[in-house]
Amino acid sequence: MDAAGSTRDHHVPQMYLRRFARPTSNGHRIGVRSRDLTPGFVANIRDVAVKRGFYWGTDDSGVPHHHMEELLTALEGSAATAFRSILDSGRRPDDDALPRWPPRAPVRFALAWWISAQILRTVRQRTRLIADADRASIELPNEVAVANEHLRYIAEMIEPFAATVFSRPWGIGFSDFCLLSGDVPVLVLNGQDHRDQRASVEFWDLYLPLDPHRCLYLPGAASVAADAQLRRDHRFKLHAGHALGLNSVMLDSSVKHVFYHPDHDATARSSPALDLEKNMLRYWMEYNVLGRDMGVERRWLDVHPEPRPDTSADGSGMPEHATIALVERVMAELDHRSNAFRKAGGG
Q1: What does the pLDDT look like over 17-65, one tens digit per residue?
Q2: Which of 35, 146, 203, 310 would be 315's cystine partner, CB 3.0–4.6 Å?
Q3: In sequence order, what DSSP letters do the residues of 204-271 get, joined into one string?
Q4: pTM metric for this prediction
């Protein structure tokens, strides 16, 4: 048995990273870039998103244990089967890249628990807990105490988070433009670091890239209230602008690295992450739902269409007055949603 603290614990599961990696004779190779988009490199998924002893804790008697890693591994086993059922159902180029939807209850159950775990298990979540303790003027504990606090938090929150995720409307989407993932793979848009994580997960939208061209998007309370189509499970196709925006959020939310498939590198058209302590960004995504008879052929998972030329000075494709009107509408909607979150008890 491994000595306490000696294990190489992945805070982003390898079974997930494989979806963004190229299989080789020496394991799966994934593209990696830092938040500032300095030159990237290709690495084995065994060697990324890993910290030694990250999920080791101690019980009340001070005896070391690795129980959380065992739980997370069990959840990953069930989720791997669920991933295959929704992403690997077709083989021919003209098969639908999007699965029949909604997913079966066992698939939804497995993914809800896995998504809940990914929200809670990250380095960013542990950093937030330390920062909250610091704001409360509590002396920062030692490394073992920090780990124990994080593990207790995961154990306390994972079931209510999973119940919330399970009951939300689920959207599964396709993007022509390649998608990034990162060391914070599940994004709680506008609530990533809020002190009341439970309220944030219940209210705000959740986003999870599944592979370089497909994603899950779970609309939150404000999105559902604004669009009746989003009140039930649905399928959708992302505009390239949506994908660029979501990639930017992934960069902004990452702690250290973003990940991409070596054959689907979207970082060339991405902007470096912002310093979020100085730039408290808010996000809102609006998209159209695909009709029941519409889909996307699987060949577009590997074939990248040429981008359309921009027609406006700012590259948005809109004249200046329309851009200004859109920005004003977005800001008003974000203010409305923030106020609704506070009224719902989010502080």
Answers
A1: 999 999 999 999 999 999 888 888 999 999 999 999 999 999 989 999 9
A2: 310
A3: S-EEEEEETTEEEEE--HHHHHH-GGGGS-EEEEE-HHHHHHHHHHHHHH-SSEEEE-TTS--GGG--
A4: 0.89
